[in-house]
Design a protein that fits this description.
The protein has 258 residues and is α/β, with parallel strands linked by helices. It has one domain: P-loop containing nucleotide triphosphate hydrolases (Rossmann fold), CATH 3.40.50. It has 8 helices and 12 strands. Helix 3 crosses helix 4. The longest helix has 18 residues. The chain is globular, with a radius of gyration of 19 Å.
Length: 258
């Protein structure tokens, strides 16, 4: 497909005689947000490592757009408390040290005020935005985000997913997210890929939410859980506070979530 940035064809991965992935086929397209979901042990992390080129598939192939630039936000980053590291220095460790470029991505993620702060002293939501800024440094054509909203409350998750959508719209990049946030993910993605060592089902969220394989895997977790829809006439700042169009703040209870 001409608009695809990456394709996986009949991807298999076997480790110590165990089939981790079997005949996985998927397409990531320009300007599309795809979300990879599946139970623990489904092979999501292995698939991400294969797509990043950190592991080699046992069989099958990965076809990347020539010269494809990938930005990656891992699930966890451990930074020792004893290591003095400012936010801007943390970004420079990526190998891109241009101060104007670093300032630009921090500003885009609304965390430019944190530039001189120690990474260890910022909040979880702020750190996730710093990680996204770091991933944007090389102007990626594909962003791979492993559990980007992990550890955030619902308001923080919603704010981060909205920011990811803004990034996609601004940079026209493909986005692959790995997520367990079933109550939010259906409203934050264009394509859902349901994985359980193989691709059980894939497609638009509206179609997947009624698919027998999806219901079979997540039926118990979905009991009493509605797809999260967010209707608003405001935005959220980096702390999750609600900001009106005029820049003022309003109380959380004034925000209507259905």
């Amino acid at each position: 497909m001409t608009d695809s940035v990456l394709r996986a064809e009949n991807l298999c991965y076997v480790k110590k005689g165990k089939h981790i992935l079997q005949n996985v086929n998927m397409v990531l397209r320009e300007s599309e947000i795809a979300t990879l979901i599946g139970p623990n042990g489904a092979g999501k992390t292995t698939l991400v490592r294969l797509l990043l080129g950190l592991e080699t598939p046992t069989s099958g192939s990965i076809i990347r757009q020539p010269g494809l630039r990938i930005g990656y936000v891992p699930q966890k980053v451990a930074i020792p408390n004893a290591l003095p590291l400012r936010v801007r220095d943390f970004l420079a460790l990526s190998g891109i040290t241009d101060k104007k470029r670093i300032a630009a991505v921090l500003r885009e993620m609304d965390v430019d005020s944190l530039s001189e702060q120690a990474v260890q002293q910022i909040s979880g939501g702020e750190f996730q935005r710093v990680m996204l800024a770091r991933a944007l440094l090389n102007e990626p054509q594909l962003l791979i985000l492993d559990e980007p909203a992990q550890g955030l409350d619902v308001i923080g998750q919603q704010a981060l997913y909205e920011k990811i959508s803004t990034i996609r719209d601004r940079h026209h990049c493909a986005v692959l997210m790995v997520s367990h946030d079933l109550h939010l993910v259906m409203a934050a993605t264009d394509q859902v890929i349901c994985l359980n060592t193989h691709v059980c089902c894939t497609g638009h969220p509206d179609d997947i939410s009624a698919h027998p394989e999806y219901l079979k895997l997540f039926g118990d977790a979905l009991d009493g859980l509605a797809v999260y829809a967010h209707h608003h006439d405001h935005e959220h700042d980096v702390h999750g506070n609600i900001v009106k169009a005029d820049g003022g703040h309003i109380a959380h209870e004034d925000c209507r979530h259905d």
